[in-house]
Amino acid sequence: MSDAPEIVVRDVRSSDLTALADLILAFRSERGEIGDTAVETESVRQAISRCQELPGHELIVAERSGEMVGYVALHLIPFPMLAASEAYLSDLLVRSSSRGAGIGTALLAEAERRARRSGCVRLMLNNRLASESYARGFFGAVGFRERRSFANFIKPLED
Ligand SMILES: CC(C)(COP(=O)(O)OP(=O)(O)OC[C@H]1O[C@@H](n2cnc3c(N)ncnc32)[C@H](O)[C@@H]1OP(=O)(O)O)[C@@H](O)C(=O)NCCC(=O)NCCS
Fold first, then answer.
1. Mean pLDDT (10-residue bins), the chain, 159 residues
2. Residue 82 Cα, ligand 1 centroid: separation in angstroms?
3. Which of 48, 89, 136, 159 is the least crowded, having the fewest Cβ atoms under 10 Å away?
């Protein structure tokens, strides 16, 4: 029998709010994205709460030895032109000290299972070209294909 700690993948609970916000804030801090920490913390907590409250949005978390080590955010998007729904994965994050242990793959598998159960016909996500996971070909290795015929556009709406 393996001594590796068991990974538990489950729905987020309200009691996870602080641990999940800390995980996200630590990652954003590593990337140098954090401004006023109190404002950022409150904004992250509100976004987590909205995902918990609104139908069609799911946060799935991974725990190892009782510690929050990762999460994925799944959004079910009705897509008339596709005549079906697409599942958008806005976030997939594993704590840097816990990477390479299968947690990201386990979170994706659970997101895929739930998307299929909800009748979605595909998963979609963005992966930064500069990220380590893109360089490693992580998503290609777990069954995604890169769409080179589409450009990704955004229009920031904040002042
Ligand atoms: C992308 C990410 C979620 C992957 O999570 P993970 O738990 O490390 O992934 P897994 O352990 O399931 O799989 C990683 C693969 O890379 C390999 N790997 C080797 N060293 C690794 C390391 N230091 N870190 C991550 N993966 C490593 C793993 O062995 C595995 O390959 P294998 O299946 O051939 O063995 C994680 O790296 C992460 O949070 N990155 C920052 C955020 C990000 O880029 N998110 C994706 C865009 S939304």
1. 83 96 94 85 96 97 97 98 97 97 98 98 97 97 97 92
2. 30
3. 159
Separation in Å, CA 70 to CA 22, 28, 108, 121, 122: 11, 14, 11, 25, 22
* Residue whose CA lies nearest to ligand 1 atom number 30: 100
CATH of the domain at 97: 3.40.630.30
Asked whether residue 150 is assigned to any structural domain, the reply reads no
* Ligand 1 atom 41, closest CA: 93
Query: Which of helix, strand or coil describes residue 90?
Result: strand
Q: Read off the tokens for 23.
A: 């995980």
Burial of 137 (0-12, 13-18, 19+ CB in 10 A): exposed
Q: How far apart are CA 28 and CA 88, in angstroms?
A: 21
Domain holding 112, by residue range, is 7-127
This prediction's pTM = 0.94
In a domain, 119, yes or no: yes
